[in-house]
Amino acid sequence: MRTKSVWLLIQKDILLELRQRHAFYGVLLYVLSTIFVLYLTIEQPEADIWMALFWVTQLFICINAVAKSFLQESQGRMLYFHTVVSPAEFMTAKLTYNLLLMTVMNTASLLLFLAFMGDPTTEALRFFGISWLGSAGLSLVFTMLAAIATKALQQASLMAILGFPLILPQLLLLMRLSKTVLGESFATSSPLEVVMLLLALDISVAVLSLILFPFLWKD
Amino acid sequence: MRLAWWKYLCIILLAYDIIGGLLLPVPRLPQLQETIRNLYYHVCMWFTMMILLTASVVHSIRYLRTLQEAYDTRARAYAQIGVWMGMLGYATGAIWAAYTWADPNNPAYASFGSIVREPKLIGAAMALLAYFAYFVLRDSMPEPERRARVSAVYNIFAYAMLFPSIWIVPRLLPSLHPGQEGNPALNFNDIDARMRVVFYPAVIGWTLLGVWIATLRVRVYALEQKNGSHE
Question: Which domain holds residue B140?
């Protein structure tokens, strides 16, 4: 794998994002309007509900943001990439780019949540770390699923169907982890263990994507 | 009628499971009482499901390595029977839980709510949903070659994502379900010697039955393809 071509592919995605602003701002607007609607319906939710809303919003933002990463590549462009880069390079670039994109979206949505819906957490900085870990996991899993879904018809809805059962364990762990910033303690295990587990899951998703993507790539 | 030796073994083991499972002595535990016999059926369903889904993934891997359609048909058949076994496991578990976990002092819906939140049940639901998604994915692609390839990739990805989390996550969350510290029923201290005599043969018997049904399905698919009708 050549790092240079990976870097070029990431640059290309960022450049495209900056040129066609409607996509990037579209997702940002989606974030903003979702949170605004939530704010209008329940102004200051309880801590538990705040957490639930945050993670659900995060999940849908991720589906929206990541889905287009493969959908925007036309058949012809994919053929071109096929001739110039290896599948592992292409997948690494996509994974990294979506990770960056979700980091931005996660920061934006967390700030908006704190601004509109109040701050139920005792340690906002720690929760920022947890939410980043969560969005990293979401972006990796959904990148691979987007790659699978582009091969099938009805791509966007299929991605959600394929993704929900797979992301559920991670979401459960994240919710559990988020409760520590609400002052709840763990009954059976330490928070650090869960963090390590999530990191291990993320790494295994990335490795699996790199192994399996070449089979999706050739047509 | 001539059958392969393992098919006779399957018949004998399942007959033993049903007769022995219902008649042989079992330990009397408070609350469980005679319902403990359900262990011979309920737990076996999950074992069989995991073994068959593993077989399905192995065939998916072999498909990706060789690109022979026969492996894809097998992966599909094993996944189907595996999901069936999972649904039977759900059904036997639901009946069992209704008599042992449901709190008679609580209204039915309140105790139902707490049962559904059981980590083991969530894990089982996730596994079944993922495989339903696998079948939806298959049906969304008309070309057989692409369908085989993409669904094999999803099968492997889903399996590798789901099964570790099904085994790990429940251990981190509080649960009523037995087997918090390890694999339920695999632990030698968990299960009484009298029950092991029936339980282990039963697992083998049900697994053989699942494999038997799956091989029949594979043959049906092969015949359908020969006659040119699709699915």
Answer: 38-226
Interface test with B, best of A91, A145, A166, A167 (most B CBs within 10 A): A166
CA distances from residue A206 to A96, A213, B56, B81, B131 in whole angstroms, order as listed:
10, 10, 23, 30, 21
Q: Is residue B22 part of a domain?
A: no
Amino acid sitting at position B160: A
Residue B6 included in any domain: no
Contacts of A60 (CB under 8 A, 6+ apart): A34
Tell me whether residue B21 is in a domain.
no
Of A17 and B115, which is predicted with more confidence? Answer: A17
| Residue A128 belongs to domain spanning | 3-217
Q: How many domains does chain A have?
A: 1
Q: Which of B64-73, B100-109, B129-138 has the lowest mean pLDDT?
A: B100-109
| Residue in the structure block whose two tokens are 């559904």 | B116
CA distance B74 to A163: 24
Of the candidates B96, B89, B91, B97, the residue with the CA atom closest to the CA atom of residue B49: B89
Q: Which residue of A has its CA nearest to B151?
A: A148
Structural contact between residues B211 and B59, judged by C-beta atoms closer than 8 angstroms: no
Residue B3 has pLDDT above 90, yes or no: no
Among candidate residues B154, B42, B5, the one with its CA nearest the CA of residue A145: B154
Contact across the interface for A169 and B166, Cβ inside 8 Å: yes
Which chain A residues have a beta carbon less than 8 Å from that of B140? Answer: 152-154, 158
Q: Quote the ipTM score.
A: 0.86
What is the pLDDT, as a whole number, of residue B182?
A: 45
Domain count, chain B: 1
* Contact call for residues A79 and A119 (beta carbons, < 8 A): no
